[in-house]
Structures are given as structure tokens and as C-alpha cells.
Amino acid sequence: MLKAKIRVKLAELELQQKDLYDEFGVSQKTFSNWVTGHSRPNLEQAFKLAKRLDCTVNDLWELR
Questions:
Q1: Phi-psi sector, 37: left (phi>0), alpha (psi -120 to 50), beta
Q2: Domain spans of the chain?
Q3: Half-sphere exposure of 1 toward its Cβ, with a 13 Å CA cutoff?
Q4: Please, where are the H alpha helices in the chain?
Q5: What's the pLDDT at 46?
Q6: What per-residue confidence (pLDDT) applies to 36?
Q7: How far apart, in Å, are the Cα atoms of 19 and each of 2, 22, 27, 34?
Q8: Tens-of-pLDDT digits for all 64 residues of the chain?
Q9: Looking at residue 64, what is its pLDDT?
Q10: 6: how many CB neighbours lie within 10 A of its CB?
Q11: At the topology level of CATH, where does 2-63 sit?
Q12: Residues 6 or more apart in contact with residue 59 via CB below 8 angstroms
């Protein structure tokens, strides 16, 4: 199972979820689910999110 670390990156960059979900064309609930680890973005979105957060995809998720 993957553990999302998106919240950490958002905090490091002083960003809020609302700053990004419109940018990614997803609902607030969908983005929130990514942050909490209840769901994951598709591969394209994951790479875009990593680029936007100035990190790698591996930085955003870790195996538990």
C-alpha cells in the first residue's frame, strides 16, 4: 500500500490544496483523496503534480 506524502510537500511550499485542485482540473474531493492516500492520480497527473511540487513522484508516495 502507498502512503501519500503530498501534504508534506504542500506544507514545505506553503501551498494549500485549493491552490492546486483547479490547476489539475479535479474536484476538491479528488485532490483531498490524493493527499490522504485514499486514491491516487493517474500516471500523467502524478508526474505533473511532482513537477508542480518540485520533486519526484517517489517523493510523493512511499510504500508502507
A1: left
A2: 2-63
A3: 6
A4: 6-12, 18-21, 28-36, 43-52, 57-60
A5: 93
A6: 87
A7: 24, 7, 12, 14
A8: 557 888 889 999 999 999 899 898 999 999 999 998 888 899 999 999 999 999 999 888 876 6
A9: 61
A10: 23
A11: 434 Repressor (Amino-terminal Domain) (1.10.260)
A12: 5, 9, 50, 53
